[in-house]
Structure prediction request, 491 residues.
Amino acid sequence: MSDIPGDLYYTRTHEWVRPEEDGTFTVGITHHAQELLGDLVFVELPEVGAEMGAGDDCAVVESVKAASDVYCPVAGEVVAVNEALADEPEIINRDAFGDGWIFRLRPEDRGSVEDLLGPEAYAELIAEEEH
Amino acid sequence: MNLKQTPLHDAHVAAGAKMVDFGGWHMPIHYGSQIEEHHAVRQDAGMFDVSHMTVVDLRGPRVAEFLRYLLANNVDRLQETGKALYTCMLNEAGGVIDDLIVYHMHGNWYRMVVNSATREKDLAWIREHAAPFGVEVEEGSELAMLAVQGPKARARVHEVLQLDEGVRDMAPFFAREVGDMFIARTGYTGEDGYELIVPADEIAELWRKLLDAGVRPCGLGARDTLRLEAGMNLYGADMDESVTPLESGLAWTVAWEPETRDFIGRAALEKQKAAGVTRKLVGLVLEERGVLRNHLKVFVDGLEAGEITSGSFSPSLGRAIAFARVGSEAGEHCTVEVRGKQLPARIVRPPFVRNGKPCV
Prediction:
């Protein structure tokens, strides 16, 4: 299913994680999540340098009718945020897994990503939620 | 699924609508992008299924007398055939039971279009008060309603329907009957356009013809951002039975003259006016990025002064806008508490957008 890239990890709260070669993790929300939200009009980005715990709410994505928290998937320090989203939050709607990335994290423990869901488990989660 | 469906339900699904439960009706919230639909109405032509709304026909020799008593605006302003006005219907305390448009069709026939959510309440109230006047109250049934709105909307309708010059040249806030279709030059978007009422079994074809002519299906999400930008109130959010028109930005809809015209709620409004109205409905524009939402608290000079009644994002302005009910003394600036932070906002007089352009 092209809506759930095979090389990413996923959370139960619809974030995705991509481990990068330099040891950081890139984080965004999934295509499924942006579809549920509709047109995004505002993204509140985390602060660069902020220390996050796993599960901390670290960003907010807002559509016209609802605000949704984005949760930090694993513990770590925010090292970069996607400034382009400040002017064009709709990038997330267009390209949730690519240009719509939200922030980059230096994880406390690279291995912690193995606690997250793989693509098949995420696909099952979505299927369950739709019933 | 026990939600009510309009006669256009299948057409919505075919057009890719995201359907939601809207007050017990299965309705389209958007067809892919509510922001694109909003822009389509401001720049071109869009159409909204509003068949869930309630059509009430009133007939009888004393119908005008009845409506002069029932409604806060004065139907005697409707001297020409088909002329319409916007009004509130009040209770004895001056609280708003509903807002509606009333059309004087001809002779002793007036048509009102009232909100969907207030249907039962409104009909019971109208019937109760119509009885002493001998006025017949009939709810439209087997009808469907489509709002076609935007600078190109009327042109598209003219392409698709055979209409006489007299109908095509109709002024805003007028309506006509054309065969079994009721066509009114009214709307809820701030743009020009028509609201069309037809028998239910004719709506699917009308939809298809307009679609083929390039009119874009638009959902309730866009309807809400459009009406807010246009400075139009939403019943249930911006006013309800606990507030009067004077506290809801609707003083202009109350016809005080002639002084001899009694209407339900008049005494309460006069008392409120004499004592000084303590609250007002204002427009807000958020200075920075963000979204304003219903019920967020508004602060003036650091003190809590009211709350947002309708909050949203304005696609035409690219900023968050809202209506808020605040103390009458509030000036030009306030802050809104959003997720624990005080965000600065400008207090403005609606509308926010006029003729498709920002005006605040």
User: Anything to note?
Assistant: Residues 119-130 of chain B form the longest helix (12 residues). DSSP finds nine helices and 21 strands in chain B.
